[in-house]
Design goal:
Blueprint: H1 7-15, E1 47-50, H2 61-75, E2 80-83, H3 93-105, E3 110-114, H4 119-128, E4 133-137, E5 147-152, H5 154-168, E6 172-177, H6 184-204, E7 208-213, H7 224-235, E8 240-244, H8 248-258, E9 262-267, E10 277-283, H9 285-297, E11 308-311, E12 318-319, H10 334-346, E13 366-371
Parallel strand pairs: 1-2, 1-3, 3-4, 4-5, 5-11, 6-7, 6-8, 7-13, 8-9, 9-10
Antiparallel strand pairs: 10-12
């Protein structure tokens, strides 16, 4: 059965969210999230978003989460606002706490906080404001009744991307990750990417090489240093790079464009951002956010209170985009992808999650060059 990667429909089926008809527009490609304003005038703001480091419109993690929030708010006539911690990429826990406190004082009933770095500030404000609900995206269960976590099995998305790249014919791969090697989501993406590339190479009876680095990605931002490193990779033979980490993708796009290289996007479908993007390792940030908000406003918070909801292939919450405009593979077909995805869904393929030391592990068909 052909599987079109439609996050919302699948999530609603799996979790039995009541108002499923609200999200049917996602069956149509190109839902216009930009048509929903980022700012609005209101006396108080019932739904709030506190950004991770990087920009709101980072074309990745922050943006995907924000689009899910504002779409839900817009379609359900709820006031909404975003808050960015002071000091941008150098934000401290106090900066994040102050942003969350501003959201609470601004009238928020529920606050969506993006990124694992929010943990300390979120726990503090959640204890101070037990009447307010908090959604911790890419976080974990804090043991608090007013906090829920939405997490994803990024290793599965990374696996699909790595497998597809090698099946397409690429034998010289690269990975550049954000967070300096400490971000759990980026670690899972990267480790899955290696495993997928290794599996495809083993099937083909070949060995592929992969440059793998956390350098210049600590702030999840584009930089001249990151671009220069990637240009060096491309100019010496690297064919395709998985750029995993917020606005870092911009450096990858520029480096690839200057060297006739290709890029694998992350978090959301980034095909429209650059002609260098051949596919994207996606997770349902919009839909996971909408799912949590739906639970709250349907009076079903108790179902997700003090829990972590871990979404993966079995929930259709990770994968590659299969729309014609986003499918950049020529040799690796959508039909082959669907067959692979079904095996992942059924548990016939298991992707390891023990990310510690992924850079120094040995792989049967991948020669890993850890670039520090």
């Amino acid at each position: 059965m052909k599987k079109v990667f439609l996050f919302v429909v699948a999530l609603l089926m799996v979790f039995a969210v009541a108002a499923c008809n609200n999200n049917n527009d996602d069956k149509k490609p190109g839902y216009d999230y930009d048509a929903i304003p980022d700012t609005m005038e209101a006396e108080s703001y019932k739904i709030a978003f506190v950004t991770d480091i990087g920009q709101l419109k980072d074309k990745s993690f922050n943006q995907g989460t924000w689009e899910g929030l504002k779409r839900f708010a817009h379609e359900n006539e709820k006031s909404y606002k975003y808050y960015q911690p002071a000091n941008a990429n150098n934000a401290t826990d106090d900066d994040r706490y102050n942003a969350m406190k501003a959201a609470v004082e601004g009238g928020a009933e529920i606050v969506v906080c993006a990124g694992f770095m929010q943990a300390s500030a979120l726990e503090r404000i959640a204890k101070e404001a037990p009447e307010v609900k908090f959604v911790f995206v890419d976080g974990w269960n804090m043991g608090l009744e007013n906090v829920t976590a939405i997490i994803f099995q990024e290793e599965q998305a990374g696996y699909l991307a790595g497998y597809g790249a090698v099946k397409e014919g690429y034998t010289k791969l690269g990975f550049t990750g954000g967070g300096g090697g400490t971000n759990p989501a980026c670690q899972r993406f990267g480790y899955g990417y290696i495993q997928g590339a290794n599996a495809a190479a083993k099937e083909l009876g070949i060995t592929v090489s992969m440059k793998y680095s956390w350098a210049y990605g600590a702030s999840f931002s584009a930089s001249p240093e990151l671009k220069a490193m990637l240009e060096g990779w491309y100019s010496t033979g690297t064919e395709i790079v998985f750029a995993c980490g917020g606005s870092m993708c911009t450096s990858a796009f520029d480096a690839a464009a200057a060297n006739n290289g290709k890029v694998i996007g992350v978090d959301v479908d980034q095909a429209a951002e650059s002609p260098t993007v051949i596919t994207s390792a996606m997770k349902g940030l919009r839909e996971g956010t909408m799912y949590a908000l739906e639970k709250f406003y349907d009076g079903k918070w108790a179902e997700i209170s003090d829990k972590s909801t871990n979404l993966g292939a079995k929930d259709n919450a990770v994968g590659l985009p299969t729309e014609e405009a986003s499918w950049g593979f020529k040799s690796f077909s959508v039909e082959e992808y669907n067959a692979l995805f079904e095996k992942l869904q059924k548990g016939e393929i298991t992707v390891a999650t023990d990310v510690d030391g992924a850079e120094t592990k040995e792989y049967s068909n991948v020669t890993l060059d850890w670039v520090k």
